[in-house]
Design brief:
Elements: H1 11-14, E1 17-20, E2 25-28, H2 29-34, H3 53-63, E3 78-79, E4 88-89, H4 91-96, E5 100-101, E6 109-110, E7 128-130, E8 137-139, E9 146-148, E10 156-158, H5 159-173, H6 183-191, H7 202-205, E11 242-244, E12 252-254, H8 270-283, H9 285-293, H10 298-303, E13 327-330, H11 358-381, E14 389-395, H12 399-408, E15 417-423, E16 429-432, H13 435-450, E17 455-456, E18 462-463, H14 467-471, H15 474-487, H16 498-506, H17 521-531, H18 536-545, H19 547-553, H20 564-578, H21 582-592, H22 597-603, H23 605-612, H24 621-627, E19 629-632, H25 636-653, H26 661-669, E20 684-688, E21 694-696, E22 701-705, H27 710-729
Helix pairs in contact: 11-23, 13-15, 15-21, 17-18, 17-20, 22-23, 26-27
Keywords: Ligase, Metal-binding, Nucleus, Transferase, Ubl conjugation pathway, Zinc, Zinc-finger
Domain HECT: 664-730
Main location: nucleus
Amino acid sequence: CVLCGQTDDCPEKYGEKKTFVEYNLTVHYYCLLMSSGIWQRGEEDEGVDGFLITDIRKEVNRAAKLKCNICKKKGASIGCVAPKCKRSYHFPCGIKRECIFQFMEDFRSYCWEHKPVQTYMDKESRGASQCTICLDLVEHLPAYTILKSPCCKNAWFHRECLQYQALSAGIFFFRCTVCNNKDKFQTEMLRMGIYIPERDASWELEENAYEDLLQCYQHCDIRRCLCKKGRDYNEPDSKWEIKRCQCCGSRGTHLACSSLKSWEQNWECIECRSIFAKSEKYSGKKKRSLATSEKTDGTTCLMEEPSPKTPRQSSGSQRNFLLQSPKIMYQNNLSPRSHLELPASNRVMSLSPLMLNRNWSLRQKHLREQRKEVCNILKELKVQVNTKTTRLNINADDIWNSALKGFRQRNFSPTNTIEINFTNCKNRAKTDTSAASKHHFFQLLMLHLQNSSLFEGSSAKNLSLDFQAVKENLYFEAGKMIAVSLVHGGPSPGFFSKTLFDCLVYGPENVKPVLEDVADVDVAQTIKMIKYANSLSSLQSAIHDCYEFLAAAGCLRPITALCDKNMLVNDILIHHVIKRIISPLESFRQGLKTLGVLEKMQMHPDAFSSVLCHKPERLSAETICDLFTIHSTSDIKEVKGANFWMGYLQDVESGESVVTFEDILLFVTGSSSVPSIGFNPEPTIKFLRIRYPIGNRLLNCLELPITNTYQQFKNKMELTIRNTLRVERE
């Protein structure tokens, strides 16, 4: 540069460096703007941005006589404008010496002694906060490298961050990142030496930057698209024209696929319809509660829900649970018999459930509602699964490596139907293509993941940092396996911590970890020493003891008051729980995107939290009762059998049976728990003239014998289920 004599090409610091071969001239733009003896006497397209070449040469000659007060070399073209100040310097030298250059009005320059400073109130805290541009900590100190917002009390910035922001945003978009103030903020930043270019923002100048926004959504999202030419086919003015959702515009359908007669008809996607349905349900709550309160006759209310399958109550047996009526499907077009038509011995008055803990009961009810929502969402995702099968050869004794090999094989696709082939140590294969075998495989896999080195923590787990696993891309595979398990009918993990779940759904930058997230005992002890320090001296002593750890974590900060420990603890938690595992977390997120699971998690966080952060609900008589649909005629013997079934469930729950609910479910479906997506087909019960119960796992059907007494029914149930499961285990 002919003015500063330096070859540096750094547009952020010195402005654009321009070279004019015909004039044998190179100059930094900022050096030109701030030089004291030159003005723009030409038009914008003349010379160098309005500075005439002859004027530039005159300025170079003038500066050649002036010595820089900083580097002591000739060519100092910039002088301090303070009265009686004779200091001159080069622009780069002034930057290093923390001079202020005002890129406005007369383009004044101030030396290090006379530069303007920002005023600070005595009451303002001298702590630290986040720079809202780079999100790193910035000290609340009057320094050249730190600037305070004039419009927000607690907004502090790094000077370098502000300069980069100004260059990117331009004069039209550069404003306070906290309150969005423009005029007051720009005036103060110009006074303190921030250069704001008079041009549009960089993102506005990029060619075709918003081209994607101009493209209309052209895809049919209906579950069963009828168009033979594919979901993306769109033929205007025909039944294959794509109509977009009138509410969100991000979903579409062919007119024929939704039975729309014309393009003018309104159409809403499933997501928007569910939102409207919920809002209407909320607005109708008051009306329903009012109608309910008007029912003053308790007897009438009890008789409104007649059930021929009232639980059998043995004399003297005290029940602490009320079973609601199960789902019953009547065959041969016969209507259900009313409660009053049954014999008096089969009628049992309904009693209110014993509410030992109302809050716990409400929480469990809320979780059940959320799990039902997840079930419906997963069923939508399962539409992607086709009939093409992929067989995985699984060794139950080496579940992880055999599963990893299967998921990485060339012909594996998450959208294919999965068949499991379990092999034993003697290399004898037992092929089982049922859902039971698949569920058992995913159950073993989830259990292995929970106890693997990929996660850390006791019950609620976070991701750990395993460099070998990162190298082998195992975090991606783990996320993929969990997504596939959810959609293909396997169990949910149920061991995610709230912090891990929030990182996946909302992004790690929006999550604040807590001490319980730290699994490392030494790190947890270090944090506790700092957190519970009760004096400044004890706090400084604790910091001194773990100085190397804090330095390695990048958490060192000046401590001047006891309250500073809170920010230090927060820094350590963010580093150890989030920043340290940011690479595994991103890989894990990519794996969870399989089959669209992560996207649904982000759309329905509350619902998915119920299956990813909580263990499945413990099976109860009520759960089993609601799970099974009873296929029955109006035959009095079958009604009697239904009563025996209900009474048996109560005996199991009260511990009067050697069989558990898990045993019953395993006997019928091959699974000891209810998958997040539910069972397919749904479990059913049939009463047949057979000697012993039969669990048909292919149809998830429990075939029960018709007996004369309850004791016969109970004995046959326990004998069959115990022996069947014992043989299977052996």
